[in-house]
Design a protein that fits this description.
- By secondary structure, this protein is mainly alpha-helical.
- The protein has a domain at 49-147: Glycoprotein, Type 4 Pilin (2-Layer Sandwich), CATH 3.30.700.
- The protein contains two helices and three strands; from the N terminus they run ααβββ.
- The chain has a three-stranded antiparallel sheet, with helices on one face.
- Strand 1 and strand 2 (127-130) form a beta hairpin.
- The termini are far apart.
- The relative contact order is 0.11.
- The mean pLDDT is 84.
- One of its GO terms (biological process) is protein secretion by the type II secretion system.
- InterPro entries: Bac_GSPG_pilin (IPR000983), N_methyl_site (IPR012902), Pilin-like (IPR045584), T2SS_protein-GspG_C (IPR013545), Type2_sec_GspG (IPR010054).
């Protein structure tokens, strides 16, 4: 081959070792990625908390609908003692039970705690709620109670 072809090949295919990143360039990239993660992560986790609260609200609405269907069949809501389990298993003294009223077992709230059901309710025919992430009454943000009233 002539020298002209060698120059063209050298321009198109440089020899290994001529390229790459220096340690300083890699450190700068790492710092930038760290800053981005520090900025994005709190916003992301705030959205996760909001989605858990919305999931609890959606589950409460679904449980309310199942409880309303139970009431249509039997003429009353399950007692506090029977609880939400009456939606999936016939109570012994309930001849008009037409369930199961849920496709699956009664769900836990998004934080892994059982929903609280009281009948008669303090705020309506029945009270159905979750204490939120902290599992304690009251609170704000992710720790706020999620209720049916």
């Amino acid at each position: 081959m002539c020298s002209r072809h060698h120059r063209i090949l050298a321009q198109r295919f440089p020899r290994p070792g001529n390229g790459g990143f220096t340690l300083l360039e890699l450190l700068v990239v790492m710092v930038i990625l760290g800053l981005l993660a520090g900025y994005v992560a709190p916003r992301y986790f705030a959205q996760v908390g909001k989605s858990e609260t919305k999931a609890a609200q959606t589950q409460i609405v679904a449980l309310e609908q199942a409880l309303d269907q139970y009431r249509l069949d039997t003429g009353h809501y399950p007692s506090s003692e029977q609880g939400l389990a009456a939606l999936n298993a016939r109570p012994q003294d309930e001849p008009k039970w037409g369930g199961p009223y849920l496709r699956k077992e009664v769900p836990l709230d998004p934080w892994g705690n059982p929903y609280i059901y009281r009948q008669p309710g303090e705020y309506s025919d029945f009270d159905l709620f979750s204490y939120g992430k902290d599992g304690q009454p009251g609170g704000s943000g992710e720790n706020a109670d999620v209720t049916n009233w």
